[in-house]
Specification:
Length: 481
Amino acid sequence: MKRILYWYRNDLRLHDNEGFLKATENAEEVIPVYCFDPRLFATIPRFGFRKTGPFRARFLLEAVADLQGRLRALGGDLLIRIGDPEPILLELARDYEVEALYTSKEVTQEETEIEAGISKRLKTYNIDMELFWMASLYHVRDLPFNLFKLPDQFTPFRNQVENKVSVRPTFPEPARIRLPEGLETGTLPTLPELGFHEMPESDERAAIRQLGGETAALRHLEAYVWNRDLPKTYKETRNQMIGPDYSSKFSAWLSAGCLSPRKIYEEVKRYERERVANESTYWLIFELLWRDFFRFVALKFGTRIFKPSGIRHDLSYTYREDPEVFERWKLGQTGIPFVDANMRELLRTGYMSNRGRQNVASFLVRDLGINWIWGAAWFESMLTDYDVCSNWGNWNYVAGVGNDPRGNRYFNVYSQALHYDEQAVYVRHWLPELAGVPPEKVHTVWQLSPEEQNRYGVRLGSDYPLPIINPDKWIKAESIR
């Protein structure tokens, strides 16, 4: 009887999962397995924080539990193991005499090294390993150019892909799954078993509490598109800062593979046919294209996306490595309200808006001069929606060593705060110590006189920190415009 071992990675779903569907079609019995790799939860010695923080760890546990339930509903189950995948998968493949291991294809160094290590071990026993490209909107084999000729900027990439390539249709869920007899499924670990003995309490100020798993992902997609009718206004609202509906909030489910980008594409296209097609509906697909672009960039440039010189291999940049300054940025204690509000939202919830990410990244690199690698690593640890390609690609971009055609892009944080949070609603939402400060003074709180501090109930340097840099340069630059 033919058996296939299916290794789940960042594809925690049944819908549009070509690899798993093919496994059920090509074998009488399929063994789905997920490995909690301790390396993903270890502390990074250089920084002293975990590679995967508590928010994404919780989301991942929820997603794996949901996948197991969905597999059981089809007559299957999910084997859960804790440990390095290389020896675990080899042992399972040998014990159950499988003919092949199927899994999704990843593109960055750590993941591909694990793939290569597993493949090498399996070959010793004449067991095939088949990889399936499943994480992007457009398939890598459909690109209208050789990967080495991938445009270095997004716009020419988008123009070529949109004009010459079609999105492949989604794959259906398998109808039924058959398991071998006597499988030891294992037990889902707890957060303490993964090393998380203190989980941050849920913060009622959070924009959204995203439950991990395909079930929640599909429910959210349905609600966002059809129940709340939000695609038609996405472009106008996407840069807002507070609330569940200003952006799509698909990213966490996309990053864990609970939701397929092609599923989103098909729903948006159906929405355009049945309700309305406008610039906002296109912009949702546009954002998926950016996600694709960073994945293809990572595939093209390899380890360069993780180095300070970036994909441009620009060695001219010099960075400070100041742990004390970095710590103040991490904790939202820089004395710059717009930066601190965003950093505290990340610290309390594992989420930050796209607008916030660009500003705090620019501030860390351009204003504080700190090595952008540090910021990218902190985002990797803290973001629930961390995606290796998008995270490191975006940090390359903001640091000026990536795909930005300008190369020296700079965010005037004061100007940005006035534009996107003019009434300081967002800042006072996350910085309650500034609640008594009038909105027109919040973004320049460092200018308050002692008398004003007494009047508004905030003492600079005590209740709220003095600024880590001289921010008046932003105001001068804004007044010159």
